[in-house]
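Hi R.,

As promised, here are both runs. First protein below:
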Amino acid sequence: MAFLLMFVTVLHLITLAMLFIATMEKSWWSWDTTKNSDLWYNCHYDNGSGAWMCTSTKETEWLQSVQALMVLSVVFCSISFLVFLVQLFCMSKGGLFYITGLCQIFAGLTAFTATLIYTLHHTEILEGDEKTGQFGYCFILAWVCVPLLLCSGVMYVHLRKKE
């Protein structure tokens, strides 16, 4: 049981880090090595200065939905971890981690909804500039987080506190 507890805790921390990176990094859509777009900025690499030049993205309703859902997913995952720590030290023997599991499942569902919206509406979000590019690593990272969050949520629901 200690191994399962350690595995779920490490999985939770990994998914939290992956969600945070997917939400904050610059690569939800990439055109080439010198131009990419994320949930917050459109960036291009300036060879003259050797730096990334970023401008705010034009906020569409779809993009605002994706932004809100990804932030909500990070918040749910963070709350889930804090609740898990509180339950781990305060819950009586034999108790189940229902609240932690439900928060983690909600985090997975919000991340799923955000990535699904971006998948289906990237043409509106990018305003027709998507023809030469492809999905970036942060988008893929967000999709990878979805099953990990849902699996860890289910594991938390079935996990019992042992002495």
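And here is the second one, sequence first, then its structure tokens:
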Amino acid sequence: MWLSFISFVACISHASTDPSAPSPYLRVPSPRQLAWHRLEYYAFLHFGPNTFTNEEWGKSQSTPDVFNPTSLDTDQWAKTFADAGMAGMILTAKHHDGMCLWNTTTTSYKIGNGKWAKDRLAKGLDADVVKMAAASAKKFGIKFGIYLSPWDIHRDPAMPKNLTGTPYDEPQIFGDNTPGDYNDLYKSQLTELVTMRLGDGAPIELFEIWLDGASGSDTVQTFDWTAFRDIIRQNQPEAIMWGHQGVDARWVGNEDGVTVATNWHTISRTQDSTRYSGDQLQTGVRDGLYWAPAEADARIRDGWFYHSTEKPKNADALMSMYLKSVGQSVNLLLDVPPDTTGKIVNSDAEILLRFKSQRDALLKNAIPKAGLAFNASSVRGNNSILYGPANVLDDNNETYWAMDDDKKSGWLEIDLGGSVSIDAFIVQEHIALGQRIGGYSIDAYVNGAFRTVVTGTSMGYMRIHRLSSTSTTTRLRLRITQANATPLISSVQVLGARS
């Protein structure tokens, strides 16, 4: 029986909770992970002494005086990202060089001991860059996160030092066989950041904390990940912990902002286990032991930190990256570094806006829902109000089309109410109850028969399928060809225009 979208909306308010709702399938996202999936795209800010020494890893170990932005403007960062449609920004509070961008009590190696900060403080201005950036993010309505490098060149005895005889010549405690406990230092720094208060007295709110595992040293340092996790959970319970393979989100396995066509949100190792390879991290593990979805980190320029000789990628390249990350169910973290003035470069900001225009041109071109009608191979418990196919177009994250538990394949059909030229499709699985689907197709009705225009494997949070050429049709069919449990479809969007 065909059900129109209008008639469905008219009766949905009478729905009641159904005790026969599908049970969760194996691992499911926590509420903070589910909220994180929905952010999709946000900014990385690599900023610090490397910006001024033209380095990436900070081996020069310059004094804090090297940090000298001529017109730092964290509001400009946040506004740039908000205007570009990015959901948040993550700042390198401490990169591998070890110099801290906030007013820490744990080390003398901080920007607060440099001339730039002292001059600002003398004028009654704030010089805590982390606090300033957090306040700017809040002001412009985007999320804020931090990167706190576990590896610390400044404290690593295996790394060259240029600070002998200065106030920054501090004990070399990084490493299992050094005197002192680097884990204690790191825990103190982490605690300062997660308990920070803004200038108005409000507590800082972090959406993600990056616990990067990179190291360019032979020094062996066993990190107290358990204690680090406890500090974050106790003080920032809504923050996602990013690590090579979790806890909450994992690396995608490359730094190109892309992933492979098949990507599972689960893996079967923890942050404390032997590391997966890059290829394994891209694919994940179907029905794995832990929900740890991938995040694709990438750069608008060649380097992570600003270098004047580099140029930004163009909007076409960023759009391709987006479709191979967010379009394949992976969040995109795009690095856009401030320059030596302390601002996002105009050329980079302009590229972000052009990229946004391209995204909007594609994603905001959805076919209006009025006049659409639906049919399905079956509906769970014959309850079309709670589980009917019209749920896929109701803009409600909590509803979905579902079948009975014994059905692991099936189809839903959409009558478009006339001829439509289609550019792309967006399909979403109801991942709040687990990732189930391993095969699907989308068919368009052309010349009296259905013709397959899209095939996919893992669906997950979201798949964007842009067609290589426009397809004109009056009817569409989504077929679930393989699932390990009864499939749950949250959303289907048809992008194009009526002919």
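A quick note on the second one: The first strand starts at residue 3 and ends at 4. Let me know what you think.

Best,
J.
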